Amino acid sequence: MRDSIKVDLLLLFHLSIFQKINKKLVQVFVLLFCLGLSGTLFAQSGEDQINIVMPTDARVIRVDAKIDQWVYAGDTLAVLKDSKGTKFKFRAGVSGQLVFWRLRNLKHYGAGETVGILRIAPVIVEEVGSGSSVVALPAFKNMLLNLYNSTGLASLFRGQGLDWTEGFGRVIMIGVGLILLYLGISRKFEPLLLVPIGFGAMLSNIPLAGLSEPGGLLYYVYEFGITTGIFPLIIFMGVGAMTDFGPMLANPKTALLGGAAQFGIFGTLLGALALNGIPGIDFSLR
Question: Model-level pTM?
Answer without folding.
Answer: 0.47
